[in-house]
Write a structure and sequence with these properties.
Length: 179
C-alpha cells in the first residue's frame, strides 16, 4: 500500500511538472497491460537502473522512458516464452513485433486505411534508442551492441522516410479558426 501511494504521488508530481499550464490532474486509472513493473525486471537490470538514477547519467524523463521500454521488453519476452535478456535476439524481435502490431492497430483505430497503416517509426526509433542506452551502460557484448545500434539506425531511417508523409498530411488538414 505504501509503494502504491508513493508511485501514485510520483505520477501526479510528474504530471504537474510536464503540464504546468493545463494541469487538471491525471485522468486515467493506469493499469499495466503490456509491461512489467521495474520491480519485476531482472535483478541486474534493476541494479543498473538504480545506478543510472543515482549517477543522474540521463535526465529523469529519459530514465522513466527507459524503464517503461524495458518493462515492455520484459512483457513481450514473457509472452513469447523467451528469456528476459537483451542478449537474446529472438526476445528483441518479439518485442519489436509487438510494438509494430500495437502501433499499426492504433493507426487503424485513428482512421488510417488498414491496407496502408504503418507503425509510428519515431516510436520504434525512440524505443531502440532506450535499449541502446541501457545496453551500453549495462555492458552487453559488442555483438549485441552492434545489433542494438543497427536496429536504432534502421528505425531512424524509416522515421526519416515517414516525416515527409506526416508533413504532407499536416498540410492537407483543415485549418482551425483563431478564436
Amino acid at each position: 500500500a505504501l509503494m502504491e501511494a508513493a508511485t501514485g504521488g510520483g505520477e501526479e508530481v510528474g504530471h504537474r511538472t510536464f503540464y504546468r499550464s493545463h494541469n487538471h490532474g491525471i485522468r486515467r486509472s493506469y493499469q499495466r497491460k503490456v509491461s512489467h513493473r521495474v520491480e519485476d525486471l531482472p535483478e541486474a537490470w534493476q541494479d543498473t537502473l538504480r545506478q543510472l538514477r543515482r549517477t543522474q547519467s540521463y535526465s529523469l524523463p529519459i530514465l522513466d522512458r527507459m524503464e517503461r521500454r524495458l518493462g515492455m521488453f520484459a512483457w513481450s519476452a514473457d509472452q513469447a516464452g523467451l528469456p528476459i535478456d537483451l542478449e537474446d535476439d529472438e526476445a528483441e524481435c518479439a518485442f519489436y513485433d509487438d510494438l509494430i502490431d500495437r502501433s499499426k492497430a492504433k493507426a487503424i483505430k485513428n482512421g488510417e486505411d488498414p491496407a496502408e497503416a504503418e507503425p509510428r517509426w519515431a516510436y520504434l526509433r525512440s524505443t531502440a534508442e532506450e535499449l541502446k542506452r541501457f545496453g551500453k551502460y549495462f555492458g552487453v557484448s559488442d555483438g549485441v551492441m552492434a545489433r542494438l545500434d543497427r536496429n536504432y539506425r534502421g528505425f531512424a531511417d524509416l522515421e526519416q522516410r515517414q516525416t515527409p508523409l506526416k508533413m504532407f498530411a499536416a498540410l492537407q488538414a483543415p485549418t482551425l479558426p483563431v478564436t
